[in-house]
Amino acid sequence: MTVRPALPSDVPALADLAALTFPLACPPGSTAEDQRAFVDAVLSPERFASYLAAPDRAVLVADDGPVLIGYTMLVFSTPTDPEVVAALTLEPTVELSKCYVHPDHHGAGLAHALMASSLDVARTRGAAGIWLGVNQQNARARAFYERSGFAVVGTKHFTVGTRVEDDYVLERPL
User: Fold this and answer.
1) Strand pairing partners for 11?
2) Fewer CB under 10 Å: which end of the chain, C or N?
């Protein structure tokens, strides 16, 4: 298994992996229709191509030979969501916008490898802290993030399709 920066040639597989993994992090009340709308709007091949080209983003992938099995996305811009701004305590900060692992590879340490590489990239780019949002009902993800040094510092809302979900805002120093 290798963690590396995503390449333009990874875009189709990255979008497929995102479409598979995003619904796994959604709360039970989230509908398949709302999940598809989010995937189409935010996790399409066209969007991933734009993320890879954006200077304020870093997309890392984990591969097992030719197959992508996990990814993260960092966003290096000042948060604009007032709920996030009010919660954060560290500047400059970077958002861990995405952190997903193929379900066939859960429990194999892949998420830890992706997290370590993401933290290294954030440090290299000069961030003092890193933050993320996680659905309040996603206990598994929250436990992983807390084991990775994150702590809840606030709450925010997150829209999936037509539903507004409640997220925790977590932050950790770098």
Assistant:
1) none
2) N
